[in-house]
Amino acid sequence: MNPTKSSASHTDDSLWSRLLDWQPERRSLWRRLAVALVLTLLAGWLRVVLAPAESGGRFITVSLAVALSAIYGGLAAGIFSTVLSLALVNFLLIPPLFSFAIQDPVEAFWLNLWFLIAQVVVVGAIGWMQRQNLRLRQIGKQAASSQQRFLDTFEFAAAGMSHVSLQGQMLRVNKTFCQMVGYSEAELLRMRFRDFTVADDVAPDESLLARALAGEIDRYSLEKRYIHKDGHLVWAHLTVALVRRAGGVPDYFISVVQDLSALKAAETALRTSERLMRQAQNLAGFASFEADVQNNRFHTLGNSHQRLGLPRADFTGEDMIGAAHPADRDRMAADWKDALQGKRPYNTTYRTRITGQDRWFSVRAEFERDAEGKAIRAFGVSQDITDRKRSELEIRRLNASLEHRIQERTRELKDAYDELESYSYAVAHDLRSPLRIINGFAQALEEDSQELTPSSRAHLDRIKGASLKMGQLIDGLLALAQYGRGEMQRKPVDLGALAQHMLEELASAEPGRSVTWEIEPGLLVQADPALMDALMQNLLHNAWKYSALKKDAHIRVFARAVDGQTHYCVSDNGAGFDMARAGKLFQPFHRLHLPHEFSGLGIGLATVRRIVLRHGGALQAESTPGAGATFCFTIPDEPNSTPPSGH
Q: Could you tell me the pTM of the whole model?
């Protein structure tokens, strides 16, 4: 191709296009008339300059001016140029020149008439052509606009659209369809619709296509599945219409595809939900119903009446009242009336007599109300709770029986405990007399028999020591029994004051020892004063005793918070003990140290534990051998019905 020639051709086409697209109406009338005036005067002047023509030749130049004026300015400019041309020709070119005197009027008349007719025809033709051209341009623009709207509608439609050949070849596809199936436009235009349709759905589609081609139907719709490019299925609603050429010859198919994947997923989810709901209702014994409040009629949903054991799905309020147990009818009617008036929710239980058996139901309902708040419809669920009610009644019976048995066993245990306490007290008390006799005779024998051998005296000393030890054990038993009996009277007790007084007494009894102590102020508890006195005496006596081997013995009385509860503690830096053996620490007469190391009966910590348990508290011990021990206890403000276990 010659670029120069191409450029010239393009210029000519562009100039010709502009000439064809010329619209005189876009210019003002005065401007068009002015151009016509200039062109006409210029033509007249050229005619005079070049050479005045004879006869009709004098009209040639101005005819061109008239045509140009009509082309530029339209009909008005053409007529104006024609009239002006007649004046110029008769004034400038007909002798005598520069005058309107005419030598041959007949000739002038015919020449001017033919010129006028010719120019009117030319100007009219030019005007008609311009109007036709304008109309064609308008029609072309409308057609282009219509085509663009069609293309936009096709391309940007919310539904997938395609043109398909009679053989199933994709001819045109829009963006929505491309997105729906995952292929690009170029890929789809190389494919047939069978290539991305599920195999089982091809035959129904082709069968309908054949019927359309045979003239049986013009269009059809069906649901089908496409195979997305990534492999998953796309459910779609397909509508196909056959387009025919002139004469009724089939041309191509137009397909409109609506994506149903979300709808199908929702339908599947809904079916699954309904199935699960039915299963859940069946498992839980639920039955759903709706009520027409104004007509006092009820209708069970989803065959719920079968689950309730009712003979039919529809029944009246009177039927419901009639089926209720006589003892529950008034309450059932009152509950429904209050719920209708909005006084309280409808959530009740009642018995019904169905097939001759009493059955319990739990019923709940929500109401739909009008603008005035009047109930017009209700939706509710009912659950058969007969088995649960029977279980509750059985549990109540068993609880009553168990409570009675517990009370009997508690009474028996209390009687046995009181009897054991009394027996222990009596035994301990009665053992004192034989011990006094044994000790008295041993002392008398020692005093009366001055000639006893050292071996015999040693035997007497052992008898006296054993009787003394047994007396101490009996005293411990009596004290332990005493702390487990009697009525407690809770009063405010200052543990710090008790500790200060007791430590001062211990220091006075052993002035030779150097012991320091630290007592935290404000250690107030609500407890029995006598029992708290015994508790602190045992703990402080142990701390004093087991720190005897320390030169810098130190005893501390304090409180600490653990899990929101106050623990009162007594600690020392004495001998301590092994925590692996702490299980026997609070058992009566069990000691973790040998008798020759520290004296004692092993009754003190057992007494402390019994006092703490009587107050509903707990006792704990912490220790490291050689680094002292810490004993902490709790005293709740209100004792528990069952004291917690502790060590």
A: 0.38
